[in-house]
Amino acid sequence: xxxxxxxxxxxxxxxxxxxxxxxxxxxxxxxxxxxxxxxxxxxxxxxxxxxxxxxxxxxxxxxxxxxxxxxxxxxxxxxxxxxxxxxxxxxxxxxxxxxxxxxxxxxxxxxxxxxxxxxxxxxxxxxxxxxxxxxxxxxxxxxxxxxxxxxxxxxxxxxxxxxxxxxxxxxxxxxxxxxxxxxxxxxxxxxxxxxxxxxxxxxxxxxxxxxxxxxxxxxxxxxxxxxxxxxxxxxxxxxxxxxxxxxxxxxxxxxxxxxxxxxxxxxxxxxxxxxxxxxxxxxxxxxxxxxxxxxxxxxxxxxxxxxxxxxxxxxxxxxxxxxxxxxxxxxxxxxxxxxxxxxxxxxxxxxxxxx
Length: 355
Prior knowledge:
Layout: H1 2-27, H2 32-63, E1 74-77, H3 92-104, E2 107-110, H4 112-116, E3 127-134, H5 154-164, E4 173-176, H6 186-198, E5 202-205, H7 218-233, E6 242-244, E7 259-262, E8 265-268, E9 271-273, E10 296-297, H8 305-308, H9 310-319, E11 334-336, E12 352-354
Parallel strand pairs: 1-3, 1-10, 2-3, 3-4, 4-5, 6-9, 11-12
Antiparallel strand pairs: 7-8
Helix pairs in contact: 3-5
């Protein structure tokens, strides 16, 4: 009986303490001035941290002379064969030599899709280059029975150069047609595109039948492009982001290549590529024209290529580094010297880091 009384006293005391504690908590009132001061201090701390981060990023951008409004070489390749048959062909050694040069001069490959969407994620001080391959030739890509690129093909050479130069991404954009790297069945075509997609390559539309679009009416232009679009989406669950015009010839209304519908197929691309001539503009620049993005034909400085093919333009970019796109290393910012601000597209204003 005595023990029960003790327990009862303890319980009552505990309950009373809890009640008093509850009443005490309910009676407390926070000082509005103190709350406001705390909120202001917190906001100031966040602002100070953000300012410090921006200052650090600007310092990095200035140190590497970042210019993300600069020009980007988009190189155009066709067949890679031992005995070139046309001026567009390159030998395996010529192709390897050009890739080695790009790696040594601090270029990092990005895909055409990454380029036109402004997702150029490369280290500070590096320069993007877009490698594009037209017509889906077997010399560009083929696999052995174990799913390894066959020696001598462009993809095998690209992977080998990347192994020798860490940081040189083995990616490119393959502009495919119905030839599909010489594969006859849909299953083989799907196998090829799946491998490329899984390895980070970009699959672009080159139309199904490679017909010249110049002078054709809108419905025929849309039909040819839509057929190439469907060719890809029937094989892999990925929509192409860009189009490379057959022969580089634009339709009479340039925007037909960018957006259109034919039957049940619609396309809406981030960029349309031509066949050659000059380096391309930054996607963050007012000079960027998505309906007619120039590419550079891969060739030595001979004949009409003395000034307007890859060797000549890479020489020019090397001699004019301030005209070349140089990354600040942060994919979320667009860095450049302040005096270039008038050329920045307003839609990227929330990402601009002018130093």
